[in-house]
Each structure stands twice: as C-alpha cells, then as structure tokens.
Amino acid sequence: MRIVYGWNHFKIKSFNPSDLRISTTEEQKFTIERRQKYFHLFWIPFFGIGKKWVLRKNGELYEMPADFVAHIEQQQVRAGTPWYTFAGPLLIVASLLIYSWYEKAESMREAISWKRSFDNEAANLKSKVAAIRPGDYVWLQDNSSVGTQLLLKTGERNGDKVSFSMITSGLAQYELSHEKIESLFRMKENPEKLEVDIQKLVAAVPSDIKEPGKGTDIRGDGVNYALHEIFQPAGPALFSRGNSMFQEKEIGFDLVNLGTPGILTRITNIYGGYEWETALPQPIRTAQNMDDRTAQLYLKGKLSKPGEIGRFKIQLTVLDTLNNEHRYDVEGANGSRKIIQLY
Predict the structure, then answer these.
(1) Hey, is 156 helix, strand or coil?
(2) I want to staple 152 with a disulfide (CB 3.0 to 4.6 A). Which of 44, 57, 164, 273 is the partner?
(3) What is the pLDDT of residue 83?
(4) In what order do the strands lie in the sheet with 60-63?
(5) Full set of structural domains in the chain with CATH
(6) What is d(CA 150, CA 81) in angstroms, rounded to the nearest whole number?
C-alpha cells in the first residue's frame, strides 16, 4: 500500500485591495487571499505549517510581492487558523470517541442481555425445583475455594419436604447428564441421605447476577451451596411404586413413569416362569408424582411353567415420543422389585 502525503494550502479569507489600503487601477483587478499551509496524509489535513499571502487574478494564484506582504503585515490583519486544518487528528479522536461509545453501548447491551438471560434461567430453574420429581438429579456447588460439588438423587416428596440420596462429584457441569449421574449413583453403595425443605432448595438458586455463586446451607454444616442445574430424564423414567399383588401362581405390580411419555412395546423374559398378560403396545403417561394413580403402568403375569414362585427378571422395551428406544431390567423376588434403566 502506497502512503500518500504532502503539503498544500487553502483559502482562509479573501480581501479586496482597498480593504488592505492598497490602491489599484482598473486594469489591475485582483484580490488578495490569506491562505493556510498544511501537511496532509491521504489528502486529509493533519496540521498547519504556516500561512501565506497570495494574489488571485483571472482565477490564477500568484506570489505576493514582498513590499505588499510587508505593507499588509503592518496592518496586523487577523485571519485565524480554521479548525479543519487539523481534520486528520480530529477525525482520529472522533473515531476513537465513537468507537469507545459503541463499545460501551455494546457492553451495556450485552450486560442487559446477559442479565435477562440470567434472570430467565434462574426463573426456569426455580420452576424446576418447585416441580421436582423422583428421579430428578440436582447439581450443587459450594462457594468456597474448595468448590465441593454435590449430586442429589430425588426420592419421595412429602409436602414441602423432599428426601434425597447424596454423593460428591469432581465432574464439571458440562460432563454431567441424567444417565451419567445415574451410573455414578449405581457405583455408590450407601449414599448419604438428606431431607431438604423445597423452599430452601429454591433459595439455593442464585438470583443475583453479581453473586452467581451465592447459595444457602442445605446440609446444616454451615456451607452455602448454589443450585446450578436439575437433570431430568431425557426419556421415560420408570420407577416401582411398591404396590404389588403376589399369589401362588399370579403376580402383579405397578410402575410409574416420571419422565417423558412413551409406549411399552415389548416384555422379554430373562428368567422366571411367568407369562406376562399386559396388552401391548401400552401407552405410558407421565405421572405428576409417585402417587399419581392415573398414570400407573400395571404389569401382570401368571406362572405358566415350573419356576421359583415370585422370582423373575424381565426386560421392558419402551419407545419415547421421538421413537428412540429405551430398555429397563425389572427383577423381582418374593414381592420386592428392582428396576434398572439400561439406556
């Protein structure tokens, strides 16, 4: 790129000779100009480098005779330096001011947008907390330098009291998912039990963008924990309600879905002599809680061949609303049941 620079001059003011007490004849018609000399960069004036007097006659400029210059200088004629002599620096300053203003305005817009997003996320998270269900997982972090992370597995809810199983975690939030946390709990034999008031959980959600790590003491150990996320099932989440019918050659029990709706498409025997009579395909609604009888899934089986009474293991195949397949192992013995989501 070629840099264009140089020197030039422009008119500041034009005078008739009589204005400067210079007599002329009819044939000597001309005007006298005071001109500003300046340095330019890419033809933009940057600073002045003096002034000069010139004659203009018939549209042409001529050097002023020295005696004319001396005569005019004695009269102390005023012709100040125009501001646009410094157009270059002024443009730079103006550009910097505009850029600075734009940056501040953009920063304010981002701050407003970020606060709106923060407030929306906080409101959404509080609504999740208020409607927390068994099977949901809660991720909290303390605001100390240690940064202990807690994972809570939601159990039964009794009014405003919610029971949880609790483990600690060293994983970052982006590494967690409902399935990942479920696997962590499976590896923990005796997780700590905890009962928390729902309002205390709501208070643990950070509500001030200036203190995004502020929480509340939910364990009673003097440490404040901030609630940052609730992981809910990505598909149907089946749980045993505990109700069952157990006879010599017949068995039946309820399952409840606390995840998204689905359709039970297949029941596969792994072991046990039961033949399952539940009609397929069977829609599975989403229950509001563990006691929602309107959304229960009832499985009934009859002992059709020799086998240990009350002992069985089956695999349930469920399709979610996106037609993704989920499988669950249900294992029973003497009226008790265990259900494990495989994927």
Answers:
(1) strand
(2) 164
(3) 82
(4) 5-15, 31-41, 44-57, 60-63
(5) 5-81 (no CATH), 131-231 (no CATH), 238-341 (2.60.40)
(6) 72
Residue 146's pLDDT is what?
63
Coil, strand, or helix at residue 121? helix
- Between the CA atoms of 290, 292, 297 and 299, what dihedral angle is there, to the nearest 10 degrees? 70
pLDDT value at residue 145: 57
d(CA 128, CA 314): 33
pLDDT of residue 307: 65
Q: Which two tokens stand for residue 287?
A: 């229950």
Tokens of 341: 């989501």
Instruction: In whole angstroms, give the CA distance from residue 238 to residue 185.
Output: 16
What secondary structure does DSSP assign to 64-111, as a single string? PPHHHHHHHHHTT---PPPGGGGHHHHHHHHHHHHHHHHHHHHHHHHH
Residue 94 to residue 50: CA distance in whole angstroms? 25
Q: What is the pLDDT of residue 290?
A: 74
Residues 6+ apart with CB under 8 A from 331: 312, 313, 337, 338, 339, 340
pLDDT for 136? 84
Amino acid letter for position 216: T
Mean pLDDT by runs of 10 across the 343 residues of the chain is 80 81 70 84 84 84 82 79 82 91 89 87 88 84 75 85 87 77 82 90 87 82 87 81 74 85 91 88 83 83 77 90 86 80 77
Using DSSP, state whether 39 is helix, strand or coil: strand
